[in-house]
Design brief:
A divalent metal cation binds at residues 25, 73. The chain is mostly helical. The chain has a single domain (26-122), classed as Helix Hairpins (Orthogonal Bundle), CATH 1.10.287. It has 4 helices and no strands. Helix 2 (26-45) runs antiparallel to helix 3 (49-79) and helix 3 (49-79) packs antiparallel against helix 4 (85-122). The radius of gyration is 18 Å and the shape is flat.
């Protein structure tokens, strides 16, 4: 069983990981801003509980996948020089995974907020 001290250490390391990615990855910072805007819109429009769950899950998916992408980039940079074609392919594939997840999140977000925005604009 994990002690409170071990749990605190684990949480501290995890928070440090978030800080490292936030400081070093511009795309992560942009995604954090987008996540904050989605959360603000969720509160402003009083979306349903189910819609809020979807928003939270998509935010978690995009941010987590961006962190995994950052890990892959660091790992392949250690094993192969940046110019190796396989390294480039790995980085491109991971970036594509983040892009696809982000686009799906955007489409779902548009679907969720479209009615709320229309009601706000049209009165």
């Amino acid at each position: 069983m994990m002690s409170v001290k071990q749990l605190k250490g684990s949480v501290t390391h995890a928070i440090h990981g978030v800080i490292v990615v936030f400081r070093s990855e511009q795309s992560f910072r942009i995604q954090v801003v987008a996540a904050a805007l989605a959360l603000i819109a969720s509160v402003f429009f009083h979306i349903t509980s189910n819609e809020f769950i979807v928003v939270i899950l998509l935010i978690g998916a995009v941010l987590t996948l961006e962190m995994i992408n950052s890990v892959f980039e660091r790992i392949v940079d250690v094993f192969k020089p940046r110019i190796h074609p396989i390294v480039k392919e790995i980085k491109d594939i991971m970036a594509a995974a983040v892009l696809i997840t982000s686009l799906i999140a955007l489409l779902v977000g548009i679907e969720i907020f479209d009615g709320y925005l229309a009601a706000l604009v049209l009165g």
